[in-house]
């Protein structure tokens, strides 16, 4: 199935910044507005969820369990989400996801208010949110090339690259940290549900997808056949395969410590743990936004694969500092630097997929991207808490900072990325 949106009435001017060009189109403006509100909600939820779990059971293993359930839901269904994105109206999928998000978070808020919430409830809710996210990401990735010209995809990914870290890793956590710090987690959960509701309204008022009738002549392959075709494309494309292998191990050694151990580090080393945790995440988010804005404001780098891998590999080194410092400014600066490199690399990666993957396979390849790169996400979340009881936190963060450097070097050599990017220019 192929679809497009009515973009016949763009606004006339966006000024001199290339990153603002996508805002000429109505559907993109509504989509990015809804996405921004939802991302803000997700940023708040990261802190609300962590603080709610700590309030119920002050044990890293409990937060590991809840975070692992979220990751497991995402990984288990992301391939199905990719196939759905290539077969079903992406707008309908995203609207459904937003409705599920509202239901789950509102249920948690009500149960917390009534005093009946338990860890297993949080785990079940996290799994549902993970499943919803598994359907959202491929649909959003597949939708952008249908509503924007190819030369504006870098800018659109740059906008998301600015909006996501600022709201998800900066404003959202900071606001949630203050709210939870002066009240209790249920209040934060009610606020998150309200934000998801606003996002749902914005999505509903977008124009329905217009199905291109001619595309229905394409034979409808079996679901497993669709998945197999996407997997074959991944295996036969070295830059894609090795980047995803790099991402898999990166997730295993990096995300668990950040998502599970960092809240406890903040609680143990600083007087106001919730607020400090929120501001540390905020530093990461601001850095990501700056990195994304810097890349998307210009043209795609000629050595786009090299720049991306160097950003992700060397950019993890400041995590070593997070493991031992008790200084908030130092910790914030370290996460800021990690954010800058993460944001810049992510914008290049998203644009690379949309430019070098055939459009009819973009949903499946995007889902394979999420599946392969996040396959170890539940494992990372599950082992981080228990591992911290037998291995010093500083050692865990040392591995998180150093291992990605080695992995990035291996991936670049194995996939011959420097040669590939010259043979396939995207500027």
From TrEMBL:
Database matches in Pfam families: MFS_3 (PF05977)
Residues annotated as transmembrane: 30-55, 61-85, 92-113, 119-137, 190-209, 239-265, 277-297, 304-324, 330-353, 365-384, 390-415
Domain Major facilitator superfamily (MFS) profile positions: 22-419
Record-linked InterPro entries: MFS_dom (IPR020846), MFS_trans_sf (IPR036259), TM_effector (IPR010290)
One Gene Ontology cellular component: plasma membrane
Membrane topology note: Multi-pass membrane protein
GO molecular function: transmembrane transporter activity
Lineage top rank: taxon: Bacteria
Protein localization: Cell membrane
UniProt keyword terms in alphabetical order: Cell membrane, Membrane, Transmembrane, Transmembrane helix, Transport
NCBIfam families in the cross-refs: tet_MFS_V
The protein, known as: Tetracycline efflux MFS transporter Tet(V)
């Amino acid at each position: 199935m192929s679809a497009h949106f009515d973009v016949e009435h763009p606004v006339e001017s966006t000024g001199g910044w290339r990153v603002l060009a996508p805002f000429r189109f109505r559907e993109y403006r509504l989509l990015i507005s809804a996405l921004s509100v939802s991302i803000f909600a997700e940023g708040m939820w990261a802190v609300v969820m962590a603080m709610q779990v700590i309030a119920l059971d002050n044990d890293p293993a409990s937060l590991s369990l809840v975070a692992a359930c979220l990751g497991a839901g995402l990984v288990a269904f992301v391939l199905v989400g990719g196939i759905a994105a290539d077969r079903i109206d992406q707008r309908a999928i995203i609207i459904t996801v937003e409705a599920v998000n509202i239901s789950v978070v509102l249920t948690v808020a009500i149960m917390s208010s009534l005093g009946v919430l338990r860890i297993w409830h949080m785990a079940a809710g996290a799994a549902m949110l993970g499943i919803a996210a598994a359907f959202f990401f491929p649909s959003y990735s597949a939708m952008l090339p249908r509503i924007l010209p190819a030369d504006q995809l870098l800018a659109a990914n740059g906008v998301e690259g600015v909006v996501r870290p600022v709201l998800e890793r900066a404003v959202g956590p900071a606001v949630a940290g203050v709210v939870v710090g002066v009240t209790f987690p249920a209040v934060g959960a009610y606020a998150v549900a309200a934000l998801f509701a606003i996002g749902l309204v914005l999505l509903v008022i977008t124009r329905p997808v217009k199905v291109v009738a001619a595309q229905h002549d394409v034979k409808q392959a079996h679901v497993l056949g669709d998945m197999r075709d996407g997997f074959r494309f991944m295996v036969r494309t070295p830059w894609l395969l090795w980047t995803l292998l790099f991402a898999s191990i990166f997730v295993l050694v990096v995300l668990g410590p950040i998502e599970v151990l960092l809240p406890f580090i903040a609680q143990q080393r600083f007087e106001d743990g919730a607020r400090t945790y929120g501001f540390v995440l905020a530093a990461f988010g601001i850095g990501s936004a700056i990195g994304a804005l810097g890349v998307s404001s210009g043209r795609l780098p000629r050595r786009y694969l090299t720049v991306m891998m160097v950003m992700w590999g060397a950019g993890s080194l400041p995590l070593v500092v997070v493991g031992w410092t008790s200084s908030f400014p130092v910790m914030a600066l370290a996460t800021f630097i990690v954010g800058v490199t993460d944001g810049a690399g992510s914008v290049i990666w998203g644009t690379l997929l949309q430019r070098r993957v055939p459009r009819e396979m973009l949903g499946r390849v995007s889902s394979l991207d999420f599946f392969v790169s996040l396959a170890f996400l539940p494992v990372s979340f599950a082992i981080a808490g228990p591992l911290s009881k037998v291995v010093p936190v500083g050692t865990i963060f040392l591995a998180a900072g150093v291992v990605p450097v080695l992995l990035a070097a291996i991936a670049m050599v194995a996939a011959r990325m420097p040669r590939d990017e010259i043979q396939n220019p995207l500027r």
